[in-house]
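Practice problem 4.
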């Protein structure tokens, strides 16, 4: 599928039997898909939500049947890893049954089903999610101080900690995600590392990206990877690991604990990006920083799948270089809670 003219792959490349279909003009192969199940969220994280979010009309949200069809086609095209996200994915009723349904795609090549959640509603659902076949869960945790957590998310910390305990009891593989904002939670870096280290739950710090409300992001608010590591190195033996496809750079603390840093801003990793995204209303985003996505909503209603496949392949092929090329916020209305991170 290599094509030095940068043109769209033609029909003869569209067979579902071809193993290398989701590839872009820069020869990046796509194996990971993130699906937003809803744009709604019970949190108002300072770095994610606009102050007055405008929710999608419920009629615009893709049905589970449309989502399943999309996932099936994507797995047939080479996706091996699906992550369910949002908004808050646990606010979508039927999510457990959807995960159960996705199990059928393992026979077609799907290897992992994951979720990213704020964990507020997790405690009563953890066992059912595990039983349904969820492989792993990333939980956002921006502070361990109840007052500060409330300030950052507008919600209480305790149900989130209960959700983490329930997921551990249910034996779901966990990682913690923490977006750092200078002047907000950067004082908690060591506290979070110590806590996660003691519990042996991998923690990843995420650099604040310009994907929240327009004009809100400021470069000065970003806590850079190098500054985090300089601080952590004063307390742990730190060894940087060779970068893999994962967006996080892993640092081994005391030779066994993996601390990850996702440094989109200070060290963009666009050249190895293997991800694609679908918003809750069917916008297909080949890049987190794309100015626009193409809507697949109508195509997902059609019984014939050729036009859908063509559109997907064309959109993937034209995937832009990414943040690395512009180093600026995208010019668009949708923000992080629409996209799902
Ligand atoms: N509600 C779920 C949660 O918070 O985990 C899933 C959706 S959330 C949009 C997915 C991820 O995006 C979370 O880990 C969150 O911390 C991250 N995120 C949101 N806004 C961000 C921003 N402006 N920069 C970097 N990461 C962000
Ligand atoms: Fe909600 Fe997640 Fe955004 Fe926080 S980061 S507002 S929990 S979607």
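Answer key:
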């Amino acid at each position: 599928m290599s094509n030095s003219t940068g043109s769209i792959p033609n029909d003869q490349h569209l067979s579902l039997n071809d193993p290398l279909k989701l590839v872009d003009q820069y020869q990046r192969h796509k194996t990971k898909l993130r699906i937003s199940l809803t744009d709604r969220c019970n949190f108002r994280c300072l770095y994610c939500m606009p102050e007055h979010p405008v929710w999608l009309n419920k009629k615009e949200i893709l049905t589970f049947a449309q989502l399943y069809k999309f996932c099936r086609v994507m797995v047939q095209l080479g996706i091996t890893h699906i992550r369910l996200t949002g908004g808050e994915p646990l606010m979508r009723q039927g999510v457990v049954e959807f995960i159960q349904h996705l199990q059928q795609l393992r026979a077609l090549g799907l290897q992992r089903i994951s979720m990213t959640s704020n964990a507020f509603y997790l405690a009563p659902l953890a066992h059912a999610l595990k039983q349904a076949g969820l492989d792993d869960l990333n939980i956002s945790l921006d502070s361990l101080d109840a007052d500060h957590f409330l300030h950052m998310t507008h919600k209480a910390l305790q149900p989130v900690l209960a959700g983490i305990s329930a997921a551990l009891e249910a034996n779901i593989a966990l990682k913690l995600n923490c977006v750092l904002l200078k002047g907000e939670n950067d004082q908690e870096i060591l506290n979070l590392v110590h806590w996660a280290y003691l519990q042996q739950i991998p923690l990843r710090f995420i650099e604040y990206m310009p994907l929240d409300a327009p004009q809100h992001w400021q470069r000065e608010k970003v806590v850079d990877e190098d500054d985090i590591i300089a601080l952590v190195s004063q307390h742990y033996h730190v060894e940087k690991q060779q970068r893999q496809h994962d967006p996080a750079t892993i640092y081994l603390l005391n030779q066994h604990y993996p601390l990850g840093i996702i440094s989109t801003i200070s060290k963009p990793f666009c050249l190895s990006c293997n991800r694609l995204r679908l918003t809750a209303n069917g916008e297909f985003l080949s890049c987190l920083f794309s100015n626009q996505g193409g809507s697949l909503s109508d195509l997902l209603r059609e019984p014939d799948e050729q036009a859908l496949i063509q559109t997907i392949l064309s959109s993937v092929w034209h995937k832009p270089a990414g943040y690395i090329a512009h180093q600026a916020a995208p010019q668009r209305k949708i923000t992080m809670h629409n996209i799902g991170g």
